[in-house]
Amino acid sequence: MQIRLGFYVVAGWLCLTAPLAAQFKEGEPSGIKTGESKMTRWQVGAVVKASGGACKTLSGYVPVPTNWPEQQVTTVAEDVGPEAKISFDTVDGGVRIMNIRIGYIPTGQTVKVLQTFEIRRSVILPPEKTDNYVIPDPKKLPRDIHAYLLPSPKIESRDPKIRELAKTVGVDKEKAWDHVEAIYDWVRQKVQYKKNMPLRGALAALKDGTGDCEDMTSLVIAICRAADIPARTVWVPGHCYPEFYLEDEQGKGHWFPCQISGSREFGGIKELRPILQKGDNFRPPRGGRDRQRYMAEHLSGKPAPGGGTPQVQFVRQQVFQ
Fold it and tell me: 255 with 287, same domain?
């Protein structure tokens, strides 16, 4: 429960990103190839009720789905009350949000701000040829890709222990692909997977040799970044995994996934759950200065004279036809 300007706000978590400028398209030479796909429908948004009196001047945002090379998103339905206005923005080049503004809600009334999305998610197939990939020159990276060489919350890529580790793991490999794969295999061998653990991060997983998918993902990413290999987190419902970035012989960059816990999947992934977000270092446009590993929903406003408290339910649910 969170209190802002006299309002009680129930905060949930949903983060879906817009594709970065350097993200390649499926079918490009040396890019990813996709396999089988699965279609699902998801409803996303907020339901706000004025409890104990009228409410006014509410504003906030909810992250919403967007397209990736392995995911196509279509808006198929909308349930937005006349009191609400919505618009869309992209934050930090990576998260698409639905902005919500509600001028006034009478006592006991409810305003819905909901959109339904049809999401087709495809399997990513590993490339047949990998010798042509190289680690990019960090000085020549686009700004949005260079951001994935920097530390993030719980991804302590500049810590001395991580930096020293990056000087040893995989450095004997001649090919960039083999270098990243050595980092991936090292984490899988050295860190024992334990589910349902509290978030601790890369350093903690390195220190005690245990972690859940989020800790293990953080450690892979931290070592990659310390080795000047861009890497980021991909979030799906109930799970996350790493992606790494290499360039082909033409100097074009490509992102490749790996499944860090469970089955061994490197360079391709059979995951069919919808992508909620790609990235792990976001600054919310409103709601605080602290960076977030993934962006949370947010709603705030001004209390009406003698007014009540808005009861807010953020929605992210799969719907069926």
Answer: no
Tell me the residue range of the domain where 178 lies: 127-267
Residue 310 CA to residue 170 CA, distance in Å, equals: 54
What whole-number distance in Å separates Cα of residue 233 and Cα of residue 69? 16
Q: 17 lies in a domain?
A: yes
Report pLDDT digits (tens) over 222-247: 999 999 999 999 999 899 999 999 99
Q: C-alpha 217: how far from its chain's center?
A: 12
What is the crossing angle of helices 176-190 and 213-226, to 10°? 140
Residue that has been written with the tokens 């970065």 in this structure: 20
Instruction: Decide if 64 contacts 295 (C-beta within 8 A).
Output: no
What pLDDT shows up at residue 91? Answer: 80
CA nearest neighbour of 310 among 19, 84, 69, 64:
84
Angle at CA of residue 50, ends 47 and 78, nearest 5°? 25
43 touches 80 (CB < 8 A): no
Kindly give the parts of the chain with pLDDT less than 50. 1-27
